[in-house]
Request: fold
Amino acid sequence: MIWRAIILLLVAAVATGCGPHTQELPMLEQSDISLTWKGNIQVSYSSSGYQMGYNDLTHEYRIYDDRLANWFSIKCDSKPETEGQEFTADVSWTGRKSTKSFSKRNFKVEKTDENGLMWLWCQSEKIGIIIKNIQ
Reply:
């Protein structure tokens, strides 16, 4: 009897879309260059008023507004390029009250597209980054 209830709960969870890509990775449905933390957009790029940079030697991507008030940076141990690729990175951004920063976190390239966009995900900290490969 208890096994039947457990199975019914599991089937209901699967049927309602409670998988990791539905709940934790809503950024996969977005295409705006941005940094999301725990499901909330922290910094979002706009072609007017923002700059984008990449350093090929340090594999660092930077997005920042013209006033340097809103920005994020991700410095990767290797250049992210292909879906499924895993790498370690340091990431920081302007938070609502202070700068947030995480060192040596594991990221994975979840998705890429023909326009050079890459969707990066850090499972441990729930950080999602959409960046453009500008190199």
Remarks:
- Residues 5-22 have pLDDT under 50 and may be disordered.
- The first strand starts at residue 34 and ends at 37.
- The chain has two helices and nine strands.
